[in-house]
Specification:
Structural class: alpha+beta
Shape: elongated
Radius of gyration: 20 Å
CATH class of the largest domain: Alpha Beta
Number of strands: 10
Mean pLDDT: 90
Helix content: 25-40%
Strand content: 15-25%
Length: 270
Amino acid sequence: MPELPEVEITRRGIAPHVEGKTVTRVVVRDRRLRWPVPRGLDERLSGLTLLRVIRRGKYLLLDFGTGWLILHLGMSGSLRVTDPGSDPKPHEHFDLVFGTIALRLRDPRRFGAVLWTSGDVAAHPLIARLGIEPLSPEFSGTWLHANTRRRRAEIKPLLMNAAIVAGVGNVYANESLFRAGISPRTPAARLSRARCDKLAHAVAETLNAAIDAGGSSLRDFVHSNGASGWFQQQHFVYDRAGKPCRVCGTTIGLMRLGQRSTFWCRACQR
DNA sequence: CACCACTCCTGCCCGC
DNA sequence: TGCGGGCAGGAGTGGT
């Protein structure tokens, strides 16, 4: 499940291969993603040079000067750099071809997105509503404390709300709360200033550790499945229901919070 | 406005 | 062994 770290690893994996390159062709094999892939991308993009690839939350934003291609990997999407002549495998719905190489999107569950916007990408409705970047210097205990005072929601669903914090999904919300020693059920407004500090640090640490873990596999984005660096990290709590806590041995619990599986150690997290 | 449930989709796992 | 059912999840949408 691509969350912020996986998307950032993807960005780092593909950027050196495609930045500065000019689009020669766009191939759409299946338009049926979360929203239909727009028609006319081939005509619109051919001849344009990709200036840079940036990330906002879980979105990849490809700057073409006159406009931006917005990519989202949904929960099963991956991007790789490949030979445009190679036979597409199942679920490889979209190619962005730069002469002798291509960016190829695979997305079995089709929760992902490929969209185009002209002008300022930050003004696009999907991007404009995103909350703070958790790896930005602005994201701190001070920010978290100030922005949760009137929140009745429990901290875990709040952390996963992209309109508040962009890019933290279920895996890293669970892991961050474990690292911070905070119960996922704590009402956000009840978190002390000190605990907000702890949590902001834990979120950044957790995300950075995951990025570092995936960084060793960057070359896999070329002629590979583009996803091999993802699940190598050891989780403290995620998907470990019924197993002993790696820190204290207490059995890891499982509950539903905001329709999502929530894993936690009742001894380590209060 | 804040929050919540619902929804999209398919691979995978479990039980029979 | 094969099949059906349930589950997983990002995040937009619409209801309360």
